[in-house]
Design a protein that fits this description.
This protein is α+β, with helices and mostly antiparallel strands and 116 residues long. It contains three helices and seven strands; from the N terminus they run ββββαββαβα. Strand 5 and strand 6 form a beta hairpin.
């Protein structure tokens, strides 16, 4: 056994050992564990979950804007085609951007870790 790979995924700890090398291209760091000898060096490779940077969810970034005060702004749905059947008043009101409700905005803002 060349090394022990520990992955922290959704709160569960999984362990794999393989002589071929790491199972994915993530960053690893070595820690000393004297009670678990690794070949002759006494080291264990561990996956460091905290070093991974959160990515922006592109589907959210394309559909919403972040205002200067930190509120999410959305477009009105249903106004891309069949506009002749819609009244002038509804088309005029749909041209204005609308705020996302606070209950819906919280998980969407988590998808935008760096803002827009």
């Amino acid at each position: 056994m060349d090394f022990l790979l520990t992955s922290f995924c959704r709160g569960r700890v999984s362990q794999w050992s393989t002589p071929a090398g790491p199972l994915c291209g993530a960053r690893y760091h070595e820690i000393k564990r004297p009670h678990f000898p690794l070949a002759k060096s006494g080291r264990v490779l561990c996956f460091l979950a905290l070093s991974v940077m959160q990515k922006t969810k592109k589907s959210v970034a394309k559909r919403f804007k972040l205002s200067a005060t930190g509120k999410l702004i959305r477009r009105t749905p249903g106004f891309r085609h069949l506009l002749a059947a819609k009244s002038t008043k509804s088309k005029r009101r749909a041209s204005r951007d609308k705020l996302v409700a606070e209950g819906h905005a919280k998980p969407l803002k988590r998808c935008l870790p760096f803002g827009l």
